[in-house]
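Running co-folding for 3-isopropylmalic acid.
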Amino acid sequence: MKLQIAVLPGDGVGPEVTDQAVKVLKAIASEFDHTFKFKTAHVGAVAIDHYNDPLPDATLKLCKSSDAILFGAIGHPKYDNDPSAKVRPEQGLLKLRKELGLFANIRPVKAYDTLLDKSPLKRHIIKGVDISIYRELTGGIYFGKKQTSEDGNTASDLCEYTREEIERIAHLAFDAAQNRRNKVTLVDKANVLESSRLWRKVVTEISKQYSDVELDFLFVDNAAMQMILNPKQFDVILTENMFGDIISDEASVIGGSIGLLASASVGKKYAMFEPIHGSYPQATNKGIANPVASILSAAMLLEHFELYNEAQMIRIAVEKSLKLQISTPDVNTKYDHITTNKVGDFIEDFINNPGDTNMNFTNIHLGQSTII
Ligand code: IPM
Ligand code: MG
């Protein structure tokens, strides 16, 4: 298959983790005889520095002319600590989502057996967790009318949803549930918010078309608690933009590190793949950022094009790396010399040598491997 992939590394650790994902995609291309072409463009704080625009036209144009987008991370502390900043890096990402119509953000959350002890949650609570979060991505409070009064003492953000916006992501969530464990949990705040009541109404109507899928409702405050108390009850979670943002960071604790969580943002025409984590500025260029979220986002990209064997190969390589603790410090307390780059090298090498015995890999920590 021929694919042109726009690479938007963005800010902070974005470039270093995205480099690993590109490395891995190149290994897949050579192993499976595909042609992947990569073109890089600026977004976020780095784009503001260069062009005073978090999403320059050239970047948007590249995204629109590519088959898929691989996104790194966005955000810089100099804007976080300045509430009066008129231009912010995050606007680049939000505009990109909106312009490309990426209305559904799919965030899989999984407890890896080898990492159960890395989570602060108890082993028996998280073992076997496998959740797919469907977060609405181009509506709600993120995109509603924003206002600050002239005296600067009152501000508001409108949370607005239309039936169509709810319907299109609800269908995707129910379709996904049919291929999983046939359960959708709608997370909302229907006891307080009018917009949530519209979600309940529309999603209940749609559920009638999916009689084999059980529909459950949870208020977001309760859902936040249930995510820690009994996450195994969840199969597909369907929710609006901001609740999805919050609940997915919380859910990442189950996996042991937010550095493992990948996501796909899809619309009718375009698709973008990005880790759920932020730009982690403190870690920039230290080689400690976990590239697995970005690498697994690349696997989701391949799945989007129905390259299932290729994606599976990445997943096997990632699991192998976790098992052998060829991992960055967030999930590795045993070895302190494994950098972002080394994790990428190992996964790349694993893909390039599928017939190799595991012997070579188990020697890595003895310094006898050729890989690291
Ligand atoms: C995410 C991030 C973004 C969001 C930020 C960077 C704008 O937190 O993708 O989860 O809030 O959607
Ligand atoms: Mg977030």
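Result summary
The first helix runs from residue 14 to 32.
The first strand starts at residue 2 and ends at 10.
Job closed.
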